[in-house]
Each structure stands twice: as structure tokens, then as C-alpha cells.
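User: Quick sanity check before I run a bigger batch. Here is a single chain. Can you write out its predicted 3D structure?
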Amino acid sequence: MMKDKRIDIGVKALIFNNDKFLVMHNKGVEEDLWELPGGRMEFGETAEETLKREMLEETGLAVKPIKLLDTWSLIREDYQIAGIIYLCQFEEGEVRLSDEHDAFKWISTDEESLQMMYDDFKIRMLNWNWDEIRGGNYVYRVR
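Assistant: Done. Predicted structure follows.
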């Protein structure tokens, strides 16, 4: 039945450390597939509030959303996520893992590295203009 299905809104962060960006590996997933950090919106939150909260919870990093980069969709049998990706500026903190993830790493923007991403992100990210994205003053050193 339709009422058993749900639609969520997800917000993800693209945050750079020099020329590499942060990706997370979900706990319990055997495949070597990675995703951008972020999470689902709670009722009453804006997308920016969701992003700030989820980044603190999942990574320990305080970030400032700078620019809306793209959207993404995830459609499964019993749920769907409509997602937003923001370019973020690092503000403070050190990367740590939440109980949702078992690893993090910083990867480059080349095509080979992007193959590590889940298809939902990879398909979009392969078409991004990375020079333009990195061209702003948003690439900071993260501790």
C-alpha cells in the first residue's frame, strides 16, 4: 500500500581538506562504497540546520553551508530520499566516527577516486565542474 512508503529529505556536505574531500563508509556494509557525510531532515529544520547538526553528529566537524551544489535521489522499494548537497566551509573540530560509520577518508576528485562512491552520488559527481567548485575560497585545512 502507498501509505506504508515514505519520502525523506537528506542533506549532504562536500567539505575539502586541501584538494581532497571527506567521505564516510557505512558500518555493516561489506562493499567498498563511500558516501558524503550528512543525514535526514527532522521536522521543523531547515536544510542548513540539518546539515550543521548531522555534520556534528556524524563527523565532529562544525561547518558552514556555503553553496547549494546539486540534488540527488535515492529510490528503494519502501522509501525514497530527495537529497541536497552543499559545499561547506570547515569551521572547527576534528574528524571522528559516529556509530553509523566504521571509516572515513579524504579522496581526490579524479574519476578513479569517484568510482568509490555509491552510484546515487557517483553519477552526479562525475559530471561536476570540480575546478569551478574548488575555485572558491572554500578549501580549508581540516584538523
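Residues 61 and 93 are 5 Å apart (CA to CA).

User: Great, the batch can go ahead then.
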